[in-house]
Amino acid sequence: LITFLKRPNVMGPLRNAVGTTNADVDIAKSAGIQDISDNNNIAVGEVVISGESVDTAVETESEDKDNVVVVKSLNEKSSKSSRWKKISQMVKWTPFIQTYRKRKYPWVQLAGHSGSFMKGAQGTVLKKCGDQEESSYRELMQDPLSLVVPVYHRTVTSDGKKYIEISCCLSEFNKPSIMDVKMGVRTFAAKEISVSKPRGDLYEKMICEDVSAPTLEEHQNHAITKYRYLDWRDRISSSRDLGFRIEAQTSKGKSRKDFKSVRSKTEVETIMKQFAENPGILNQYLDRLKMIRSLCLASQFFRSHEMIGSSLLFVHDDKKASIWLIDFEKSTKMSHNTQILHNVPWEEGNREDGYLIGLDSLINIFQNLTIPS
Question: Nearest 5°: CA angle at 112, between 320 and 204?
Answer without folding.
Answer: 130
